[in-house]
Design goal:
The complex is a heterodimer of chains A (about 140) and B (about 140). Chain A has about 140 residues and is mostly helical. Chain A contains five helices and no strands. The longest helix of chain B has 28 residues. Chain B is elongated and about 45 Å long. Classes of the chains: A mainly alpha (about 140), B mainly alpha (about 140).
Amino acid sequence: MNGTALTTSAAAGGSPVDGILATATIVLSLVLAGWALVAALRHRSPDRTQFVGLAVLELALLGLAVAALVALGGGERPGEPGAFFGYLLTLVCLPPLAWVLARMEPTRWGSAIVCAVCLVTPVVVVRLQQTWEVLGG
Amino acid sequence: MVETRAPERATNKGPGRLLIAVYIIFAIAATSRAGLQIATKFDEAPVAYLLSALAALIYIVAAVGLARAGHTGRRVALACCSVELVGVVGVGILSLADRALFPDETVWSGFGSGYGYVPLVLPVLGLYWLWRTRHDA
């Protein structure tokens, strides 16, 4: 069991979606979710920080997608290709979805939408990593 | 500080918009999962995968119903939320009672435990929201 775990974590180093960028997207997303939650609790509509945060998050996620595509170009393959691309496509759509809905809803509920989407995003990032590494061990 | 309260009667404003956001995310999640399962391994668990597809369809229709608001939209959303609640509770009980019935996970297995029980909470919130805004109809 220990041997397998070590091999997996060693192989994880080669995953294009498991590195500092992926960690950054998770951290940024959670920080943004916290910020938006505070705004929602204080009856504040989505502020500039939330929209800038969503934009930065989207750029980071696109960076993640590019990293995955580069790895694919280099001959690497995800463990579950279908699920991997499904998650990747969903992932890059999440911040724009939050952006559009938050723009339509300039009330505390707009902030709540940003919070909800930013809580979902890290889950999808982790699932993305799992679908790449399923055969990685 | 005086807060002016707009009459929140339409289902697609305020908290309703947050509900729609979560419905959209679940529509995407369930659709891609069902699509992938049906496309790649339909023979393994046809009942489970068809159920996933049905759940996906219901999430999409519910989101549209809530977003369209109005009389028809409300009825559509009411029907969807009811079917959803019956579905998630029914499948939850069945999947506990007889594991062989659903050999692979669906969105509704184990009362939606694979999705943080959101599939169980979502229809309840939907029905509550429709009830709260009922004077619009």
